[in-house]
UniProtKB/TrEMBL annotation:
Source organism phylogeny: Bacteria, Pseudomonadati, Pseudomonadota, Alphaproteobacteria, Hyphomicrobiales
Pfam families in the cross-refs: Cytochrom_C
Signal peptide (UniProt feature, chain positions): 1-21
Subcellular location: Cell membrane
Residues covered by the Cytochrome c domain: 28-131, 173-281, 296-386
Designated name of the protein: C-type cytochrome
Length: 407
């Protein structure tokens, strides 16, 4: 009898230990999935301001019309509560949702296809633990004919290559981790790679800059003039982790990326991404010659700069480290496209807040007291002074963006 009791207790003890081990494994998987959701900045498109986490409703403006981030909580009626892991894997790797309909490229499955099945399983396990939120979201708000999903068959033929990331055996583990994140879950190319006329990536110009919703997502290759060629690995890490380095302070959509995503990455992943980006060759194109200081636009722009800008950015564009960005030799200033600069001058900007920099510095708006020609001359001066060289800004470019910013 005593032996039977001891045997039963031993079996129960073994089952309990196995159950605890299973719970621990589940916890590790879910926590890994939570971190993967941060890496992918899933909240940016799936959590509306003031809304429930991942319940959708974030408008995404595209050149073809508006899409809205879907509800990806485990609600069975309006979310992904009735999805299987296979359904989720197909959405991530093929861009095909449960029910067989194709997703639009605003859901960056062209990058997510590189994510491993194991990472997708962990991410799905995390999403299944979220609070189910009943939130009906009409994701497709595109006008005809773009709202017809059948067109996506042709779009995919031209713009989509399915397949997980394949490590480069000639590179070390750190480089491959960085490449896996940049090309896959972090989907950096979705903003930073130029697009063709139908919204697909120009893969031969990977990460060489693109305008998104009136903001320039700059070149993040080794281009020393317009890209990050002069940045060190540590300066790249500072920018991703803290939102600032000696060259730039994150603003606009990138400030949100830093605040909600990259500031929470592990140091190892930050280093891996920085290492990979620093390995990318930049365009060999020589920078243009700067405008002469005697050019009337330069003379007018200098007067405006000294009156309105030098108090923060300092007389020769040095800025104040960690507070006001450096304008001299800054890649964003030297970029051929002045979209972000025009926008910041007109509408102002506030940098993102991180644990390291909880108070983000702000830039006031000048649309109310600078005319289009004033803004154009000011930026032309900044873009051709202190070692900078970039095409002059036209008043018409300012007027166009000003009209787009009107309520």
């Amino acid at each position: 009898m005593r032996k039977s009791v001891l045997l039963a207790l031993a079996i129960l003890g073994g089952l309990s230990a196995a159950a605890q081990a299973g719970d621990q494994t589940d916890f590790v998987t879910v926590e890994r999935g939570r971190y993967l959701a941060v890496l992918g900045d899933c909240a940016a498109c799936h959590t509306a301001p003031g809304g429930k986490p991942f319940a959708g409703g974030v408008p995404i403006e595209t050149p073809f019309g508006r899409l809205v981030g879907a509800n990806i909580t485990p609600d069975r009626e309006t979310g992904i509560g009735d999805w299987t892991l296979e359904d989720f894997q197909r959405a991530m790797s093929e861009g095909v949702a449960k029910g067989g309909y194709h997703l639009y490229g605003a859901m960056p499955y062209t990058a997510y296809t590189k994510v491993t099945a194991a990472d997708n399983a962990a991410l799905f396990a995390y999403l299944k633990t979220l609070e189910p939120v009943h939130s009906e979201v009409e994701t497709n708000q595109l006008p005809f004919p773009f709202n017809i999903r059948l067109s996506l068959f042709g779009w995919n033929l031209l713009n989509f290559t399915k397949g997980e990331y394949v490590p480069d055996p000639k590179r070390d583990a750190e480089w491959n981790r960085g490449a896996y994140l940049v090309q896959g879950l972090a989907h950096c190319g979705t903003c930073h790679t130029p697009k063709n006329v139908i919204g697909g990536d120009k893969n031969d110009q990977f990460l060489k800059g693109n305008v998104v919703d009136g903001w320039l997502a700059p070149d993040i290759t080794g281009n020393a003039h317009e890209g990050i060629g002069k940045w060190s690995v540590d300066e790249l890490i500072d920018y991703m982790k803290d939102g600032a380095n000696r060259y730039d302070i994150a603003s606009g959509p990138m400030a949100e990326v830093v605040e909600k995503s990259s500031s929470q990455w592990t140091d190892a992943d930050l280093k891996a991404v920085a290492t990979y980006l620093k390995s990318l060759d930049g365009s060999p194109t020589a920078p243009p010659a700067p405008l002469a200081a005697s050019d009337p636009r330069m003379v007018a722009g200098r007067a405006i700069y000294e009156d309105r800008c030098s108090g923060c950015h300092v007389g020769k564009g040095e800025g104040i480290a960690g507070l006001f960005p450096k304008l001299a030799a800054a890649p964003l200033v030297n970029n051929a496209d002045p979209a972000s600069l025009i926008r910041v001058v007109l509408a102002g900007s506030r940098a993102g807040a991180t644990d390291a920099r909880p108070t983000g510095p702000s830039m006031p708006a000048f649309a109310w007291n600078l005319k289009d020609e004033d803004v154009a001359n000011l930026l032309t001066y900044v873009r051709n002074s202190w070692g900078n060289a970039a095409p002059p800004v036209a008043a018409g470019e300012v007027a166009k963006l000003r009209s787009e910013l009107q309520p």
